[in-house]
Design goal:
Blueprint (H helix, E strand, L loop, with lengths): L3 E6 L2 E6 L10 H16 L5 E6 L4 E3 L12 H20 L4 E5 L2 E3 L1 H8 L2 E5 L3 E3 L10 H7 L5 H10 L2 E3 H7 L4 E3 L4 H13 L3 H14 L4 H16 L2 H12 L9
Parallel strand pairs: 2-3, 3-5, 4-6, 5-7, 6-8, 7-10
Antiparallel strand pairs: 1-2, 8-9
Organism: Stigmatella ashevillensis
Protein name: Enoyl-CoA hydratase-related protein
Pfam family, one: ECH_1
């Protein structure tokens, strides 16, 4: 994990893509390192939130490493792309809440990482986009997430023109949750992480899984499924504790069960 740094700070696992000279591009080693970091965070009881960021102040992640494209042959390259797809799936499906700390530009596959995180906080100076079309490529896997974040016309405009968005524009489209001055980035991420860390981890995991499952269901089927998930939710120990705490007007003591 030389190209991915992992550190636990309080209840946060801070995962950093550490290739600033390569614009924090996604080499096969970075993808594997990120997969390992997610697994490490998920089994660590001290970690309640995973924060993903890039080294330096200029780039969060510039996407795939074009300089390494084709190394190892066609099939090996295809498998590396499948590994990135797995990374997006693992990041989105993580049991722990995930936050993208967008310290610099998030482009191409880097935008995919942002969209796969549950929440995202960006410094105001950053740009986000899918510029692959300008080198004769198309952001195939990123589209699966982009389609779920913005409307059809806007999504097609982004992938077909390659235009970059400012942080404020990305905020208005719902691609990120916050856009703050660079000097306030850590404080904003920390406040959001602390808020998530203070919730029942068991209920957050159950609710997140239900959210993702229902997302692609027809409306009547989604309602039926979510009704069953609410019944399951009420059986959780933390649900009983939360209701008891509310009625007793005291802070809940979560057991994460």
């Amino acid at each position: 994990m030389e190209e991915v740094r992992y550190a636990v700070q309080g209840h946060q696992a801070l995962v950093t893509i550490d290739r600033p000279r390569a614009r924090n591009a996604l080499s096969p080693e970075v993808v594997q390192g990120l997969l390992e970091a997610i697994s490490q965070a998920e089994v660590d009881p001290a970690v309640r939130v995973l924060v993903l960021t890039g080294a330096g102040e200029k780039v969060f992640c510039a996407g795939g490493d074009l300089g390494q494209m084709g190394e190892g042959g066609f099939l090996a390259t295809h498998e590396s792309r499948r590994a990135y797809a797995l990374l997006l799936s693992r990041l989105q499906g993580s049991r722990k809440p995930t936050i993208a700390r967008i310290n610099g530009h998030a482009l191409a596959g880097g935008l995919g990482l942002v969209l796969a995180c549950d929440m995202a906080v960006a410094a105001e100076h950053v740009e986000l986009g899918t510029p692959e079309i300008d080198v004769g490529l198309f952001p195939m896997m990123v589209m699966a997430l982009l389609q779920r974040h913005v409307g059809r016309k806007r999504a097609l405009e982004l992938v077909m023109t390659g235009d970059r968005l400012s942080a404020r524009e990305a905020l208005s489209l719902g691609l990120i949750n916050r856009a703050v001055p660079a000097a306030e980035l850590d404080a904003a991420v920390g406040a959001l992480a602390a808020k998530l860390a203070g919730k029942s981890q068991a209920v957050l995991a159950l609710g997140k899984r239900a959210f993702l499952t229902a997302e692609d269901m027809p409306f009547p089927a989604a309602l039926e499924f979510l009704a069953s998930q609410l019944s399951l939710n009420t059986l959780a120990e933390d649900a009983a504790e939360g209701i008891s705490a509310f009625l007793s007007k005291r802070p809940p003591d979560w057991k994460d069960r």
